[in-house]
Design goal:
Layout: H1 34-50, H2 56-64, E1 122-127, E2 132-137, E3 142-148, E4 153-158, E5 165-169, E6 174-179, E7 184-190, E8 196-199, E9 206-210, E10 215-219, E11 226-231, E12 237-242, E13 248-253, E14 258-263, E15 268-274, E16 280-285, E17 292-296, E18 301-306, E19 311-317, E20 322-327, E21 333-338, E22 343-348, E23 353-359, E24 364-369, E25 375-380, E26 385-390, E27 396-401, E28 410-412, E29 419-421, E30 425-426
Antiparallel strand pairs: 1-2, 1-28, 2-3, 4-5, 5-6, 6-7, 8-9, 9-10, 10-11, 12-13, 13-14, 14-15, 16-17, 17-18, 18-19, 20-21, 21-22, 22-23, 24-25, 25-26, 26-27, 29-30
Length: 427
Amino acid sequence: MARRIPPVRGVRLRCRERVPLDPVRSPERRRPPRGARFLAAAAGIVALAVLSFAGIEELQDRVDAATPDRAVTASSTPSDAVTPVPPSPTHHTGARADRVRSVYANDGKGQFSPNVKGIPSLVYVPNTVDGTVDEIDPKTFRVVRELTVGGQPHHVTPSWNLRHLYVDNAGSDLLQVIDPRTGNLGRSIPVASPYNLYFTPDGSKAIVVAEYESLMEFRDPHTWRLLKQVSIPWPGVDHLDFSRTGRYLLVSCEYSGMVVRVDTRRMKVTGTVAVGGRWPADIKVSPNGKVFFVANQGLGGVSVVDPVRMRQVNFIPTGTGAHGFAVSRNGKLLYVSNRLEGSISVISFATRKVVATWSVGGSPDMLQVSPNGTQLWASNRFSDTVSVVSTRTGRLITTITVGRGPHGLTFFPEPGRHSIGHNGVYR
């Protein structure tokens, strides 16, 4: 049986000596004796020293994300309300809290990085069964090239600086580089079983997700030198997303129903939560960074997780086999692929409710939004096609035949300053 990681616990400090008020000088406080002052100072130092990741760093994320995405009401169920934090003398509150910048603020229509100027627009589709990557012209909806990569390509991942694309080929233990300016294959980088690939928001680390090995490998994204292997104690380590500051990430363990928190600086597991259903897949942080959304295939919906307390605070039913996510171009909606029923659900970040469900057929898996936000592209994992759906009407525009087992397609280039990986997630 896998070892259960104990929850992060706080530290309670007690001072036995109570310093009474001076009845003569009241209401002014009497200066404590030197011994009491020493004990108080020591207690403060110890408290700061032992305050863990679940204290300072998550609270900073909570302060940064203080604006709620919906009104908080009294409830007998676990609340996702922000724990009040006393303001410091130098911390500005009020108007600043109302201007919390969305995690997706740089992903809007037309917000392209200078690094992608002149790169032709293509949709790259890795076909896991065939060992190929199809390149589709999004204007004509036609496959214009097929690259043979071998193995089992699962996702096509843009590099952090948007200059390269990586084919995450778990079957060959390779990251295979595509030059997006030419569409040609380049060099191959040997890594352990790369099912997925991510980059910390600051670009300092690449994270190779080795699903079959239950490992996350932190690597130098320039030399690909291994920095540290993080063993995940549950099977199926799969998809992840980062907190708004990038200090930690949440990753799904698809075959165990667990979600794990990892400190990206210390490269260490710091918390876990069971979301049930045994099949959690894609993960997406809310625009204000307060909660994470987890596609829960086994339960047919989306689990909402508080990343500080590491507990599920809500569940949003969507459809059978909820699997992949994409965020609308305006950052207000979350698209959810329901892979086993051939539908797409649309969730409002503000209300955390389904506002539309589109029946599109096929077996929609991974999703991409077109640069102008008017189209949603979905790889149909079990149908060997790619669907293009109108985000205005929810109607199917066209279906494109590709290779067998299409998986993590990427539409490139897209708006955003840099890529944090997967099949094209940007900040």
